[in-house]
Amino acid sequence: MALDQYGRDIDYLRISLTDQCNLRCVYCMPEDISFRPRADLLQDEEILRLVSVFAGLGFRKIRLTGGEPTIRESIVELVKRIRATPGIEDVGMTTNGLLLKHLARPLRNAGMNRINVSLDTLDPAKFKQITRWGNIDDVWNGLTEAEEQGFRIKINAVVVRGWNDREDAVSLARLTLAHPWQVRFIEMMPFGSTADFQQTHTVSEQELLDVISEALGPASLVDAGRLDGEARRYRLEDAPGELGFISSVTNPFCAGCNRARLTADGTLRLCLLRDKELNLLPLVRGGASDAELTALIRESIWFKPWGHGLAEKQIPRGRVMSEIGG
Ligand code: SAM
Ligand code: SF4
Asked: I want to staple 292 with a disulfide (CB 3.0 to 4.6 A). Which of 5, 7, 110, 288 is the partner?
């Protein structure tokens, strides 16, 4: 078991498989971003070794993310081998869904059963505007295939004021009336070079809930407000699906945070909104034993931060979201 100084049991690892992406969402990365050379990123065997070290520390749940995890050529094989690592009980993925039409079945066969697909609007023109060039049909085809393959599906929508905070949010919420999906509205968070844009375009949970309720009727709180991961959940009347609100900036969920992140270039990051990191790559490549890695990771986890410093203008500037792995 890996405990931090506040008594939190950290057992959930998010692994970024690449810093690259086939889209450029406006809130995530600048259009002219340059990517790290492949040799500077964790190789498959290095990822698998670290997964086994984390499993030895009591980690049970893995989520693969990025950048866009599906563009890693070895993705299916990686999922299969991570899932087969002793101790690992659950492997999920966060994806933009563009490549899911062809990957949903092999991923399901490799042992994955949960998938989060990022989709901020159902309007094709707006989707293109937010992602800078994406075609929404690709996402929709991917979602349809994932549903057919029996995945548990969550939709992640980052809400950007003036872009998708009104009719788009309502259309996304309406999906929960037809599908057993959790549609999650994510408060935009400030990172690196995109921080100024984010800070002026954030929409609060209450504001969004009011817009949705006005159009689709009242939404009742699920489970008396107990968080599902980081999401507070609501259900529209007779809906098979749920609405989720992730309000990391205005209503942080630090008390229930059980996660650590491994970036594509091999650093361990204990808080999304804090720049402090432990660089594992030189250790992995420099001959550190599993016991040495375990001791360093355990110590780093002990000092996992509590609370972000955004109110004090401590904005994480070291990396943008795509480099950390959302
Ligand atoms: N490419 C994949 C995708 O879009 O799902 C995985 C990586 S992406 C960085 C993971 C999640 O982070 C996505 O749901 C995305 O919408 C979200 N995200 C990106 N930038 C964000 C920001 N500034 N604030 C909040 N969420 C953000
Ligand atoms: Fe790519 Fe995901 Fe970032 Fe969009 S949110 S640019 S799809 S990594």
From this structure: 288
- pTM of the entire predicted model: 0.95
CATH architecture for segment(s) 12-324: Alpha-Beta Barrel (3.20)
Distance 221 CA to ligand 2 centre (A): 30
| C-beta neighbour count of 224 within 10 angstroms | 5
Residue 160 CB less than 6 A away from ligand 2: no
At 281-305, the pLDDT tens digits run 999 999 999 999 999 999 999 999 9
**Ligand 1 pocket check for 96: Cβ under 6 Å:** yes
**Ligand lying nearest the CA atom of residue 14:** 1
Q: Decide: 65 in ligand 2 pocket, CB within 6 A.
A: no
The ligand with the least distance to the CA atom of 246 is 1
How far apart are the CA of 278 and the centre of ligand 2, in A? 24
Domain ranges of the chain: 12-324
Max CA pair span of the chain: 59
Inter-CA distances, 69 with 40, 97, 260, 309, 313, Å: 17, 10, 17, 29, 31
CA–centroid distance, residue 67 to ligand 2 (Å): 6
Task: Give the relative orientation of helices 44-56 and 290-302 as an angle to the nearest 10 degrees.
Answer: 60
- Identify which of 118, 308, 319 to mutate to test ligand 1's pocket (most ligand atoms within 8 A of the CB): 118
pLDDT greater than 70 at residue 311: no
Angle (CA) 13-15-19 rounded to 5° is 155
The predicted-structure confidence for 144-195, as pLDDT tens digits, reads as follows 999 999 999 999 999 988 889 999 999 999 999 999 999 999 988 877 666 6
56 membership: H or E segment, kind and range: helix 44-56
